[in-house]
Amino acid sequence: MRHGNAWHALMRRPWRFLFSRWPWLAFVYLLASAAIGVVLLPAMIATFLLLPLWGIAIGALERRRTRLLGFPRQTSGHVPLTREQRHIWLAVRVNEGATWRESAGLVIDLVLGWVALAVLFVQGVCLVVFVFVGLSGARGPNRITLFADVRIVVGPDNWWLVVPIALFALFVFAYLNAVLAAAQATLLRMLCGPRHRELARNVERLVQSRSTLVAAFEAERRRIERDLHDGVQQELVTLAARLGMVSLELDDLAARGTATGSARDALDAAQGQAERAMATLRNTVRGIHPAILTDHGLRPALAELADRTPVPLSLDVADFGRLPSSVETAAYYLVTEAISNAAKHTDATRLIVHARVEEETLTVTVTDDGQGGADEQAGTGLRGLRERADTLGGQFTIVSPQGGPTTLNARLPVLTESGEQRASSAR
Predict the structure, then answer these.
(1) Selection from 17, 123, 109 nearest residue 65 by Cα
(2) Average pLDDT of the chain?
(3) Which residues contact 299 (CB under 8 A, 6 or more apart)?
(4) Is residue 424 a contact partner of residue 390, using CB atoms and an 8 Å limit?
(5) How many Cβ atoms sit within 10 Å of the Cβ of residue 412?
(6) 275-287 pLDDT, tens per residue?
(7) Rounded to 10 degrees, what is the CA torsion of 344, 400, 339, 385?
(8) Which residues contact 371 (CB under 8 A, 6 or more apart)?
(9) Which residue from 270, 248, 271, 275 is spatially nearest to 259, judged by alpha carbons?
(10) Which of the pair, 165 or 387, is modelled with greater confidence?
(11) Which of 169, 184, 243, 409 makes a 20 to 30 Å CA pair with 219?
(12) Which residues contact 277 (CB under 8 A, 6 or more apart)?
C-alpha cells in the first residue's frame, strides 16, 4: 500500500528511503522521461505545426505518469464536450489556456527528458568504471587513466576502496534521481492540471447546460401540448361536428322513409368513438402539462389535482407564490407519480403533501399509508424523478420500508432575484 509521494519519501531516514521502492520508482520515471525526450524530439521537428495536439497528448500522459511517484490522480483542465460538439473539438481546444500550458509542458518534457538521459548516462558510466577499476585491481597492480591527466594505481591491496566509493555513489544517485523525478512531476502537474478558475468555469458551464436542457425540455413539452390542443383536438371537434350534421341529415331521410337502421347504428358508433377520442386526448394534453400549472402556479395545480385524484390527497402547501416553471413542473410530477404508485401498487387510503420554500430551496414531501416496499430500480417513474431533480441541481430521496409508509422527498433549489445576484457576484 502506498503512503505519500516521492517528496515525502525523501524526508524519511536515509536507510528507510534507500531500502524502499522509491529509488527504483524514480529511476523508472527518469528512464521513461529519457525515452519520451528521445522519441518526441524528431517527431516535434517533423510536425512542429501540431504542437498543440502533441501538448494535449503529453498532458494526458503526464497526468497519469506522475501517479507512479505517489501523486494523486489529476483531472483535466479542458472543458468537457458532448458528442454533438465533437465537430468543434479542435477550435475549442486551441482557444483553451490548458492546451497552451500543456504545450509548454511538452517543451519542458523534452528538455528534462534529455537532462534525464544525460544524468542516467553519467551514472551508468560511473558504475561501469567502478566495476572495471575493482576487477582490474583484484587481478594485479594496474595504472588506470580516468580522464585527462588523472590517473590512479590500483592493486590487490587497495581495490576494495572502490566498494565504499561505489556505495556512496549509489546513495547520491538514489537521492539525485528522486529529486529530479519529483521536481519534474511537480512542475508538469502544475502545467497539465486544472486551475481553480477553470474548474469553476466548467462547473458553471455544466450548470448552464443543464438549465438549458431543462428549459428546452419544458418548451418542447409545451409545443407538443399546443400542437395536440390546436391541431389534433380541433380536427376531432370538426369531425364530431360533421358527424352531427350527418346525423341531422339521416333524421330528415328517416322522416321521408329512405334511411336504413344500419346507417344510423354506424353513425352513432362513429360519433361515440370520436367523443371518446376527444376525451382521451384532453386527458393526455392535461397530463403533458396542466394549463392551471402554467397559468396559476404549483399550489392551485395541486389543489385541482386533489379534486380528481383516486386516492384522497391532503395538502399542506405554503403560499410561496410563483416559482421557476421547471421547479414547479418537477414538484407537480413528484406528486402525480406518488399518486400513481399509491393507486397502482399499494392499498394506501390517504396521501399527505407538504411543500415549503426555505433558504431558496423548495422542499416537497409526499407520504402515503400503504404497505411500502417501493423500489426505485423496479420502474422508470421514480428514476425519472431522481433524474429530474439531479438536472435541476437538487436531491431526491425515497424511504419505503416493508410495511410502510412510503415517503418521497425532493429538495429543489430556487434562485430568487437576490439569490441570482449573490451567485453572480460569487462567480
Answers:
(1) 109
(2) 78
(3) 317, 319, 320, 355
(4) no
(5) 24
(6) 777 666 666 655 5
(7) -110
(8) 346, 347, 402, 403, 404
(9) 248
(10) 165
(11) 409
(12) 236
Spatial distance between the Cα atoms of 353 and 313, rounded to a whole number of angstroms: 7
Residue with cell 594505481: 153
Kindly report the number of other CB atoms within 10 A of residue 389's CB atom.
22
In single-letter form, the type of residue at position 96 comes to E
Say what the pTM is.
0.48
Which pLDDT value is given to residue 181?
93
- Output the CA–CA distances (angstroms, integers) from residue 20 to 8, 9, 14, 15, 170, in the order listed: 12, 9, 10, 8, 14
Distance CA 409, CA 419 (A): 23
Q: Looking at the predicted structure, is the pLDDT value of residue 396 above 70?
A: yes
- How far is C-alpha 144 from the chain's CA centre? 65
Neighbours of 13 (CB within 10 A): 7
CA–chain centroid gap for 9, Å, is: 34
Type of residue found at 416: T
Average pLDDT, integer, range 293-306: 83
**C-alpha cell belonging to residue 279:** 376525451
Instruction: Write out pLDDT tens, residues 362-382.
Output: 999 998 888 887 777 666 567
Strand boundaries in 280-327, DSSP class E: 313-317
How many C-beta atoms surround the C-beta of residue 338 within 10 A? 28
In the predicted structure, residue 416 carries a pLDDT above the cut 50? no
Q: CA neighbours within 13 Å on the CB side: how many for 337?
A: 25
Q: Which of 28, 112, 93, 29 is nearest to 55 (CA)?
A: 93
Q: What cell numbers appear for 64 in the block?
A: 497519469
pLDDT mean over 79-105: 80
What SS3 state is found at 397? Answer: strand
What count of residues does the chain have? 427
